[in-house]
């Protein structure tokens, strides 16, 4: 890969993943089996969780968690406007009412705003660790304890992120944590996800709901003893992860720490290059936490620039650099406009931030020189389109 075109993302898939998939295909066991069991067990060890259920997406994991906790019609669930639509869809899937809280300075959900949204109908909070930066979980857990709310973390970006020495997934103060292994995520199985918990009862519910509502005991008897009998005990889903995908996940997980080190190093290179550039703001970091650096969300100081964000993106694209935006706030999507709990008046800070954000390419398959090229190109661009410069130029003429 050279500097002629830098894609927004490329997965890092090695020979180990390819060989394991080949062996899986030859093994005769394609769906959830020994490799999924191995991936589940190694993953829960990595995030210090007690139980883990592999699922075919993070979306499925969030839906399962909400369903397993018995959240449904009449219940309100508070989440962030700066997330992927899936976070909100899951709340609607169980018939509950989504309610937005606003974001804080770091772009994550603001606990003070959550507190303002809590009513007697509120049952759960879904914080999202945006870009892999851990939310202020102490404040969120504290609110949850005082108001007897469930906490389900959307950790789609946060495999390996930590608060102090505790990995996301490691605390029993959250009821469930859902991770994503989608193609563009830090750790990928193409499509996939994992739900972790420390609650044994919830695990049983997750396992049953994940596979057609078939009771786990009956299923074990069925698969182990060759017994043909099984029993459907509730309205379940089809959310299991196949062994073909888990084969990829097993090897991605072994590389995750080195992936995270590269991401952190690259984020630091971006920070060093851009922190003193007045036209932009580098992402906030939180003392005592380790971000998974899934995203590098740069903020433009639009009053210091003569171009807007969309033109900035076009200019970068013209120089061969692909970028993205995370995220289009929930209230701006057509479908969500009919939900009062998703109104943009609930999240003025997210609405204000949205026109300023652009996500830079950041992934282990990039080279250090490509990171430097992106940072250098941004410096040149903001110099070219600096409002200060245009004032100086017009004063001279
Ligand atoms: C990607 C993503 C999801 C959904 O993950 P899937 O595995 O694709 O279902 C959920 N929430 C956030 C914040 C995401 O970025």
CATH superfamily heading of the largest domain: Type I PLP-dependent aspartate aminotransferase-like (Major domain)
Shape descriptor: globular
Backbone structural class: alpha/beta
Q: Compounds present?
A: pyridoxal-5'-phosphate
Helix and strand run: HHEHEHEHEHEEEEEHHHEEEHHEHH
CATH top level of the largest domain?
Answer: Alpha Beta
Q: What's the number of structural domains?
A: 2
**Gross CATH architecture of the largest domain:** 3-Layer(aba) Sandwich
Q: Please summarize the sheet with the most strands.
A: 7 strands, mixed
- Strand percentage: 5-15%
How would you describe this structure in keywords?
397 residues; alpha/beta; Aspartate Aminotransferase, domain 2; Aspartate Aminotransferase, domain 1; 2 domains; binds pyridoxal-5'-phosphate
Please outline the helices and strands.
Elements: H1 15-27, H2 34-46, E1 51-55, H3 58-68, E2 76-79, H4 85-93, E3 97-100, H5 111-117, E4 122-126, H6 137-147, E5 150-154, E6 162-163, E7 166-167, E8 176-180, E9 193-197, H7 200-210, H8 216-225, H9 243-274, E10 280-281, E11 289-290, E12 296-300, H10 309-318, H11 348-353, E13 357-360, H12 368-384, H13 387-396
Parallel strand pairs: 2-3, 2-4, 4-5, 5-8
Antiparallel strand pairs: 1-9, 6-7, 6-11, 8-9, 10-12, 12-13
Helix pairs in contact: 1-9, 2-9, 3-4, 3-7, 9-12
Bound molecules: pyridoxal-5'-phosphate.
Pyridoxal-5'-phosphate binds at residues 57-59, 83-84, 86-87, 128, 154, 156-157, 180, 182, 193.
